[in-house]
Amino acid sequence: MTLPDFSNNTVLGKLENFLKDKSYIHGHEASQADVAVHEKITSEPDQSSFPHISRWWNHIKALDFKSLPGDKADAEKSLQFDDAKEAAAGDDDEVDLFGSDEDEVDPEAERIKAERVKEYEARKAKKPKAVQKSVVTFEVKPWDDETDLQAMEEGVRAIEMDGLVWGASKFVPVGYGVSKLQITIVVEDDKVSMDELQERVQELEDYVQSSDIAAMQKL
């Protein structure tokens, strides 16, 4: 299996564009295809330059790789980046060996074209940018069966971050009389760092043993 060189910023840019409207590398759930790419990207890319990769990278990092379904080879099938199309487009730019006069530039036509492009860009800049949001199933584990779960949940919900909305929750048994808090949250991808949220939750050291991202899906 051959994957692109993700140490190259140009390739990372293509992956960033690929993940703009996708939560995972292949299909609609985390799989071994995500693991294959994650193993190639050994550290989190710069969040300001690659926000979509950063969101995906941190989500996959939090999962149990061995439990994910699928085949790593699916990553190569999904990440083609239309290189063939780009190559074909490059071929179209080759010099016309027949020297057609149709390639002569009309200055007036070019001026009008440039004005229209400028007007289009101005209109496009005025349009509000769509807010990218994700629904996250967030889990918080207590220290033991004597931990006050209600107090733990109250502490978790007291955490405020711009772009974070706490939703429905429930306590899920994990064994030996211990239950974990499972809570649904909605986050604005560009505003909320899941790493920072987990750090904030971990500060509730009297109640919280650990936290985890069980699932994440874009709205």
Write a compact overview of the structure shown.
By secondary structure, the chain is α+β, with helices and mostly antiparallel strands.
Notes on the structure:
By secondary structure, the protein is of the alpha+beta class. Helix content is 38%, strand content 20%. A 4-stranded antiparallel sheet has the order 2-3-1-4, covered by helices on one side. A hairpin with a 2-residue loop joins β2 and β3. The longest helix is centred in the middle third of the chain and has 20 residues.
Write the layout of secondary structure elements.
Blueprint: H1 9-18, H2 32-40, H3 51-61, H4 73-78, H5 83-92, H6 107-126, E1 133-142, H7 149-157, E2 164-175, E3 178-188, H8 194-202, E4 208-218
Antiparallel strand pairs: 1-3, 1-4, 2-3
